Automatic annotation (TrEMBL):
Residues 1-20 are annotated as: Disordered. This is Plasmolipin. The chain crosses the membrane at residues 37-63, 83-104. It comes from Daubentonia madagascariensis. It comes from the Eukaryota. Keywords: Membrane, Transmembrane, Transmembrane helix. Residues 7-16 have a biased composition (Polar residues).
Length: 124
């Protein structure tokens, strides 16, 4: 045990000038984003965003359409505004749902069935 302290090096490096993080460390890796794996990761993030937005707009549509009848008289300006907001939430919900579906289809791939992928690629 007496030899142990002499074998240990306790020299440390000093931090670089300018105590903040360097700008080059904060730049995104565009090479990774352009790669196949990076593109799949971005597609999966878009799919998650679209599914989350769909769920939020479903709740907005339900809450808004449920409040139309209870809070205002039919034919008045507040009734029409709430009905229009409910209709818009429904349109956006459908749009995000369709976008999420197509994102899922792209993420899954064209030949999701292994047998059809093998047949199309091997015997064309």
């Amino acid at each position: 045990m007496a030899e142990f302290p002499s074998k240990v090096s306790t020299r440390t490096s000093s931090p670089a000038q300018g105590a903040g993080a360097s700008v080059s460390a904060l730049r995104p890796d565009l090479g990774f984003a352009r790669s196949g794996l990076g593109a799949l990761m971005l597609l999966q993030l878009l799919m998650i965003f679209n599914v989350g937005a769909t769920v939020l707009y479903i709740t907005a549509f339900i809450a808004c359409s449920a409040a139309v009848e209870l809070t205002s008289l039919k034919g008045t300006r507040p009734y029409n505004q709430r009905a229009a907001a409910s209709f818009f939430a429904c349109l956006v919900m459908i749009t995000y749902g369709v976008s999420a579906f197509f994102s899922f289809q792209a993420w899954r791939g064209v030949g999701s069935n292994a047998a059809t992928s093998q047949m199309a690629g091997g015997y064309a």
